[in-house]
Amino acid sequence: MAGVELAAPWQADAEEEGAEGGRAGRGLRHAPRFHYLFSPRLWLQRIVFWGGAVAVAGAAIVFAMSASYLDVLLHRGLAWWPYLPFVVTPIGMALVVGLTRYFRGSEGSGIPQTIAALSMREPSARSRVLSLKIAAGKIGLTLLALISGASVGREGPTVQIGASIMQALGRVTRFARHDLDKGLILAGGAAGIAAAFNTPLAGIVFAIEEMSRSFEERTSGTITTAVIVAGIVSLAVLGDYTYFGHTSAALRFGEGWIAVAVCGVAGGLLGGFFSFLLIRAASGLPGKLGPFVRARPVAFGALCGLLLAIIGFASHGTTFGTGYREARSIVEHTESMPAAFGILKMLATVVSYVSGIPGGIFSPSLAVGAGLGANLALLMPYAPAGAVALLGMVGYFAGVVQAPITSFVIVMEMTANNQMLLPLMATALIATGISRLVCPEPLYARLAQGFLPGASSERRPPDPRQA
Fold this sequence. Notes:
Elements: H1 9-20, H2 35-38, H3 40-80, H4 85-100, H5 111-118, H6 123-126, H7 132-148, H8 155-173, H9 178-197, H10 200-211, H11 222-238, H12 258-282, H13 289-295, H14 297-314, H15 324-332, H16 341-354, H17 362-377, H18 385-401, H19 404-415, H20 421-438, H21 443-449
């Protein structure tokens, strides 16, 4: 996707006011120094970015706490009656699909919508993928999908929620420059990732590598400040925690690094295949399923719910929800997972996505990768199982999103294990290269095309609203 030239809000405003004063072309270097400290317009823009970051962090925290509570509630229900999903999941999925038609733009991950918004110049087009109504629907419907047993995450939705909040604030203040609108979207999405994962560095890297697809951004102040503010708020409320716990696992140079190559190749192949399936589904389901989905989306949602219940029963309940609990158990060796957990979790995530409900693939993909690593560890007893699990996570995740830097930074920050930095980097690079052989086009960039104005129906993601 083409890169976005982005200046800090006070830089852009200084250039704009300089042009209005007859100083066009001389730019920022000749702007009065006191202008940065005393300009009401610049302070308004700073307050919008900082206040928006606080709002994004607040929404992400409420979202995270609600998702954690519902996950506990769901597993209590499973412990009470293992057959509960055969009743709850089809009904819940059908309900989510039905409600999604009233929140247009909330379906799917949310990251493709945010990327698509960066290419839109018309406010009316952006409002179809970024708005406070969509953000509210995204939160409510994703939570409903989680308690119903869908294999979805909240990180991708948090990106769209963050971008929607920032976009709404920008419309209130009526920023004049198009690149400032893009800055708000990027800052909101990055702040969402930082607050959702409690990984500020990953938020910055994600905005540059995945959302803008360019390292030539001038992000001085805009994204960085929003991410820092969101990270501080998240840290103050939730504390300094890591999603996948702490592990001191490390790899020795030599035979242990064979695991890097194995996990890179396996993760790239499986992650690339997963992306290929999602892109293929976005172009329309094959055979008679395509017309059936368009004619009876709610019934198709119930059918997907039944499939999720079957997969969940076969996995002893481990494929329901985000996958955080299961991935943490694998990394910390606190609980044994079924041997087929990784494959079953991937299938559950594919079914959840194809249904057209709101929900992300970040945390389910990390859980799939942990399951893959656990399986590969059995083939390499000379390497610590915890280390191989981390390599599996970063390998599969990099294979899915084809963003190697984001992948290893997220896993490193989420496990607080700096000893694995070089192995994680190498695995992510190998997996990304292998994945591109299977799926040449990055997943999110390809899905974003379906949300651009004028996209044909064949290129749009599955949309349960079109009945």
